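In this supplementary section we document a worked example of the pipeline. Step one takes a protein sequence of length 201 as its only input; no multiple sequence alignment statistics are reported here. Step two produces a three-dimensional model, which step three serialises into structure tokens for compact storage. The input and output of this example are shown verbatim.
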Amino acid sequence: MGTETEIGKYVKMQLNLLAKDDRTLEQSASKARLAQLRRGVGKSPGELPELWGAFLDNMPEELMGREGKPSYAEWAVYTALTLFALHQQGHAASMNVEGMENRLGRAARKLIHSEEEEENVRRKLSIAARSDDMAELSYHLKTVVKLLGNSDIKLDYVDLAKDLYWFQFEKYVDQIRLKWGQDFYRFVGTKDNGKEEKNEK
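The serialised model returned by step three reads:
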């Protein structure tokens, strides 16, 4: 099984533990873990020891780094989970929904209701896409995720985690950037008000 697939499976498992349904979200353990993960936004894996279990517990051995240096997979998982925790704050239902219509570029497109908003959102997404490393990317994606949360727009965090993995490879980074741009501009002519999800696969 490939690394991307393992990352997707692991992130999906962690998201189900945190916010599988309304009942899960109401559990004190989930609330505490989400609060912990929010403190990790913009920081590197391992910077906050109290978060070790929140993103490393039951992680497949092949995804883990060595000698205290985070692997590409750990960066992807950690960044996706911390951003999800930020996105989830203040919401009673999970803000993770899988499907093409909820990938990063398409979710960002749902924020737009005017030409002025289009330029603002496009600029924020473009700045994130131009990031040179994961720390910078996490910082800029935080801004986009806050906008999504404020508008009650959901995001596919399993897909995002896979994107974050490939973003770290020079050979694939431009492919991921283009995917975000394609999704952003492909999402046109919809009557979606930004709060509905269409799970196309």
